[in-house]
Known about the structure:
This protein is of the alpha/beta class. It has five domains: 19-168, FAD/NAD(P)-binding domain; 184-234, no CATH class; 248-278; 280-381, D-Maltodextrin-Binding Protein, domain 2 (3-Layer(aba) Sandwich), CATH 3.40.190; 394-429, no CATH class. Helix content is 27%, strand content 15%. The protein has eleven helices and 16 strands. Helix 6 packs across helix 11. The longest helix has 14 residues, at 108-121. It is globular. The termini are far apart.
Amino acid sequence: MSYDSVRGAAPAPxxxxxxxxxxxxxxDRSENVCVIGAGACGLTAIKNLREYGFGVxxxxxxxxxxxxxxxxxxxxxxxxxxxxxxxxxxxQFPDFPMPDSWPDYPHHTQVxxxxxxxxxxxxxxxxxxxxxxxxxxxxxxxxxxxxxxxxAKSGGSDRTQRYAAVVVANGHNWSPKxxxxxxxxxxxxxxxxxxAYKDAAQLRGRRVLVVGAGNTGCDIAVEAAxxxxxxxxxxxxxxxxxxxxxxxxxxxxxNDTVLSLRVPLRMRQWLFHRTMxxxxxxxxxxxxxVGAVDSPQATLLPLSHLRAEGLxxxxxxxxxxxxxxxxxxxxxxxxxxxxxxxxxxxEVDAACLIEGNHALFVADGTxxxxxxxxxxxxxxxxxxxxxxxxxAPQDLVDRFRELLLGMSYxxxxxxxxxxxxxxxxxxxxxxxxxxxxxxxxxxxxxxxADGRPGAGTDRF
Length: 460
């Protein structure tokens, strides 16, 4: 459905051509605006134009909204590990915030879900013709535009419609551009554009050269460093690589705070250099203590976080494992405590600890108060839940769930039970927060291709 006028009236029939152009009928869409593409920019264009009273026809050649973020479409350039590079406050629309439960840098599947919810919330799908491609846009008389479309809206044949204005929101990342290099035609290996990269498995065991140091190039170089037998990264000039987190906060939020204070450029540069030295980057060549080999919070997730920040375990940083209580479902306080003690004694340069255990070790004297500082934090993650079998009686399941959710840490009799699990409260079950752990397990090679624990995990 589309609208024809600023009053929002239904459009007049357009079967009869209002004029002709070179023997082609042109159907007048009055004062309507044409929007090309239903990605993030196209959706906001539709919403804001409608709010200001314009009629809008949006044409999207794919079958859904989301543009480049819609990984279901063949033209989408996103790959399995794609995440936002800007944190939520600097990505979300001000009138439609992202959920608080989402990580600071959402996964690409969450970005698509966000755009789909945005379209539904503001009723934008009513103004979009899916499966319809714009093949030509030409200036017409009186400052208007003739738009030729092909696809579902035109019945499969070309159709030209005249609009008061056109918003081009077709994106630029769907059409790969291959550079030309001397001798490339004689290269016997495989050459792919980043748009054809989908998963780190494409690089496994191979020698890989990544050309380009943009966001995608850096992502692929990091994954190649983990999965390929060798990796080289080529860039035409030098770059500063900033970590995603600084002092426990997303780096872009820290930078925004500095800008809001109107700090002079030279001072900002000095602060940036100091921040780089004090955060993850200063671990290069150092020893990092981790917990048990199968610990999500003390090994798998922290090492994944280091990889995401450009530090490859075993290459850029050395890893010392304090393998205590491996195989005990991820509760490895012993390994974390040993890593904390090693940090205190100078045997390692950093230790990976869950935040609650760090506070516990300070409280019980394992780590003197003020003796350590936090270099970086992983994004929020899930790694544990309580499950029941399908055969469990539903009335008992409901009652058990009611009892768990009703447990309060403020009740002295209940507190020891929650302490056993390291909890302050039980929360309703969910499965959507496990993506970071799944990625960390895959990156570490914890399981082999047959689903069995890999090298170094033969005790399981």
